[in-house]
Design a protein that fits this description.
Length: about 425
């Protein structure tokens, strides 16, 4: 996912100061926590810090806010540091965990995850990227994923009284919405995160590890079925075949009107309404439909995990912070405050009152993440999936193009599987 150089602030209790310069209280050990900009509000962090320090009399929190830009290199340097100045807890993007777990740089949190933190209820799209083999290194904190954002007025005008819940109903409803100059759906041709969900729903994968070697698998029958559904749905709108959802930004396309549906995170609605206030009361949300009405479609799940560097001088204190932040009390408060999906399927009721977040939570229960290998970053940088999608939408043979894209993915992943 797109992430947002270094932090400028530390928030703790009632004061804000430069990171690492907080005066310690007598007898208290300072736990340094790196969290990402905009992951949590200042008010939330202040409440959490006050509560944590009140219940952990021997610990003091030093919460340092980091920028997403450049964070991978900064975290890597911190994990390799022997100067005793590394953070004790770090928030990382869920798909970034494999980048850091190599060479024993993260603490193994498997025991705590099973014994204390309810691992069996974690969202799979956050939990799986945090694993390496049978060991858990990343602890899920919060999630977000795509849903269908739609125009209630255009649905009503088309006579659609219930949102589609299956793959069969969805294109049929979208065709009805293609009337009076409206687009039933705006779907850019290179929205590969959305394609991934369709591939997973069909039982396919973007890449798999076989015989200790990763290889691209867009050319399997299941993955090709996912692409075929994407092609049919995309054809019901006027989305560009050779661009992704940010070129042009789909919020602007939707805000200009005459588009009935887009696939996006609910938070995009804020941008839509800023650009077209008349849509404020017309926006609705529903989970990406699945193959049957029994469960929503599989979606790519983004979000954050918390990790503990192996070079921390107090792993016990670090795990106390993680236990509190990811526990039911503070995780649900964070979800309500920031409109996130909580880290456990059992906490979905905490956001049931917010339509967009509830739709996200329904999808997140079946969410997935990109292939669990550090080399996947190279795939996203080159992104042969986008070119494959554009060529197929332009009329090229799907099987031929899928084989070409799969070969390129295999080249980019060209290391033995762990």
């Amino acid at each position: 996912m797109k992430r947002r150089l270094l932090a400028l602030l530390c928030a703790t209790g009632s004061l804000v100061s430069a990171c690492g310069l907080l005066p310690g209280e007598h007898g208290r050990h300072t736990v340094t926590v790196w969290l990402m900009k905009d992951s949590a509000s200042k008010a939330f962090l202040r409440r959490f810090t006050e509560d944590f320090e009140r219940t952990h009399h021997d610990l003091r929190l030093d919460i340092c806010i980091q920028e997403w830009t450049g964070i991978v290199d900064k975290v890597a340097r911190a994990l390799d540091s022997h100067a005793g100045d590394a953070p004790d807890v770090i928030e990382v993007g869920n798909t970034q965990v494999p980048l850091y777990v190599q060479d024993g740089r993260l603490a193994d949190l498997t025991l705590e995850s099973i014994r204390d933190w309810g691992k069996e209820h974690w969202l799979p799209g956050l939990a799986e990227p945090g694993k390496d083999g049978n060991s858990q290194y990343g602890v899920p904190w919060y999630a977000a994923n795509r849903v269908v954002v739609y125009r209630r007025d255009l649905f009503a005008r088309a006579g659609i009284t219930a949102v589609p819940r299956t793959r069969e109903e969805w294109p049929a409803a979208t065709e009805k919405l293609n009337a009076d100059g409206n687009q039933g759906i705006y779907l850019a041709g290179q929205d590969w995160y959305t394609l991934s969900g369709f591939v997973w729903d069909e039982g396919g994968e973007l890449a798999e590890a076989n015989d200790y070697q990763w290889r691209g698998t867009l050319d399997t029958p299941a993955a090709l079925r996912g692409m075929d559904f994407y092609r049919r749905l995309q054809a019901l709108g006027a989305g560009p075949a050779d661009a992704d959802e940010e070129h042009p930004p789909q919020a602007g396309v939707f805000a200009r009107g005459r588009v009935a549906q887009i696939i996006a995170v609910p938070g995009l609605a804020q941008s839509i309404v800023r650009q077209n206030p008349e849509l404020k009361d017309e926006l609705g949300y529903f989970p990406v439909p699945g193959k049957t009405a029994a469960r929503p479609g599989t979606v790519f799940t983004g979000g954050s995990d918390l990790v503990v560097p192996q070079n921390t001088d107090d792993q016990f204190a670090a795990t106390a912070v993680i236990g509190a932040l990811t526990g039911a009390k503070w995780d649900t408060e964070l979800a309500r405050t920031m409109n996130y999906v909580p880290n456990k399927t059992t906490l979905a009721d905490a956001v049931a009152g917010e339509e967009g977040v509830a739709a996200m939570a329904a999808g997140a229960a079946h969410g997935r993440a990109t292939p669990n290998t550090p080399q996947w970053a190279a795939v996203e940088a080159d992104n042969p999936i986008k070119g494959y999608m554009s060529r197929v939408l332009g009329g090229a043979d799907p099987a031929v193009e899928a084989r070409r894209a799969s070969r390129r993915i295999t080249e980019l992943l060209g290391v033995p599987a762990a």
